[in-house]
Amino acid sequence: MRRNKQIDVERALALASVLNFLCSCAKGCLLPFLTLYLRQLGLTPAMTGVVMGTRHLIALVCSPVASLLSKHYNKRRAVIGGSLVCSAAVALVLLLIPPADVHEQGSACNTSNLTSGAAHSLGDKLLTSSVGPETSTSTRPEDLVSQPDVTLPAKTITDTKSAPVMTTSKTSNDHRAGDKSHPQLSQETVAVAVNSSLRDPQISSSALYHVTSSSAAAVRNKRSNSKSASVELQGEKTAAVEEERHFDFLESLKAMDPQHQLFFMMLIVVSAWECASAPLEWTADDGLYEYLDFADASDRYSSTGLWGLLGAACGAGGAGLLVSQLSCLIAGQTRRSVVHFYCYAALAALALPAACYLPLYLNKKRDRANGLLKAVQLVRGSPRALLCAITTLLVGAACSSVENFLLWQMQDHGSNELHMGLSLALALLSQAAFPLLAGRVSKILSPGRVLAVGATCLGLQCFYYSFLWGPWAALPAQTLSCLSSGALWWAVSAQCEDVATPGAERSVRRVYSALSLHLGSGLGSFAGGYVVQRFGLTWLFRGVAVGLTAWCVCLLLLQWKAPRQRRINYSRLLAANASEASDSESEQERDWLDKAMEDDRSNNNYGRRINH
């Protein structure tokens, strides 16, 4: 009785559903809008694609490795809690990275335009004032200082009145004292003196003579100092080389332009963020499944997947609605897009209690590494399973292009966070509704045909995205997610059941999810960023649509040519064995009864003969 009280399947499923809902809601608040934030900071499409693709590839490696290590050392609960805390902290670190000094294009709420208007008007005034001497006095320095966020332009060497200020004695003394470290300043001074002497004949030639003589003395002093410095640095060469190697990366960052500095900083922080958040899903999933399997309730494991889609829909729609109600700048000079990061951190903190009380079980006999290797062998050994794997890889690449740059396309056509959030929520809810239609679809089409239909519908969606014309134009195409993503993953699950041996269904499903969600998405992000950089958003979606349609035609032909492998139904096989056993037992019983009756008859006849 005590053991039965410890195993509470309903409580385990409730906590797992809450954890899945909150974690998916946190991701929905931030991840779909992350590319918009990168665009707002000033990254190019190619840079954005590299950042997002690196995130997917890190998840491809970290998820299985962290799951295996946490099981080996029995630290699953610590890994789950640490992943939630560290991912929330690193997500807030992203807010500390300053934007690049690049003008933002296509933003519905462009905060850079709020402060750049005065600068542009000031530049126009300065350009007008430099046309003629009669308009040079229209803009006074006092007026320029009074305007906010304005930097006074530096004086150029065309101002001839500044040249006579340099006297002979001051120039020679300055060059004797300080030109040892600034030889370029003396050369510029020579050029100014020459120009001023040509323009103003009142400047005597003695000034030019002293300037040139002081510059020559500076060159001689520089040579002597360089010789002595080379002798001193010869003994410290090894230490200097090591120190330079240590600061090579920082120096290279300083030498880059602000946009590339921003790119490398975002790449480093996003990589650390993914390393912190990747172990959460696989580790919690393994612990829950082994707990339910230990309680003989593994058939109820799939019921928690629906809560993930609902959580992502609530997160995307709720975050979009919340951000759209705010002004462009909040709390002074803070962009309203930072609310996505704070929502992510808050929901991760809310999920921490559910992760602490989630019942977990450690089954040391189950080897996940061998299970994944066997799953890969099963997929490779079946032609239809291999075609399904190639399809999921291509669909993952296409989905990454949509996830990364669909909001860019919507933003260019006037959409704000409200339109984007509701559009994402509608797509996720439509995908979650496909199981209601799965029974009817399975009677009409085979899983292979459903796989082709799902990829074709995704191509139609991408083709529609290339012709957006307004803020709400993307909503009709989002309803097709029921037949694209929903139908496709239903077909993948059916393929997993066909190819997998008993107990290997989850491993085969993880192989397909890794191919689609991580490897395909990573490669698609790299390629999508390059295509947008080179050809634009419109041709990205059209190219994806054409590629998916062409593959679906090839997929149907290859499925028709592929050999059909008869599915082994183990339940029917066991039932057939049981029926055969029962038939043999009944036949044995019948033979024994017939033999006993014959013996009885023979004995009775023999007794009668004796009596007579």
What strand order characterises the main sheet?
A: 1-2
Tell me roughly what share of residues is in helical segments: over 70%
Order of helices and strands: HHHHHHHHHHHHHHHEEHHHHHHHHHHH
Straight-line N-to-C gap: 71 Å
Please give the CATH architecture of the domain at 367-568.
Up-down Bundle
CATH topology of the domain at 367-568: Growth Hormone, Chain: A
Reported for the largest beta sheet, the result is:
2 strands, antiparallel
Return residue spans where pLDDT drops below 50 for at least 5 consecutive residues: 1-5, 111-220, 569-573, 578-586, 606-612
The CATH superfamily of the domain at 367-568 turns out to be: MFS general substrate transporter like domains
* Tally of helical runs: 26
Shape assignment: globular
Round the mean pLDDT to the nearest integer and report it.
Answer: 76
Quaternary state of this entry equals single chain
Q: Structural class given helices, strands, pairing?
A: mainly alpha
The fraction of residues in strands falls at under 5%
Number of E-state strands: 2
Question: Compute the gyration radius: what is it?
Answer: 37 Å
Assigned CATH class of the domain at 367-568? Mainly Alpha
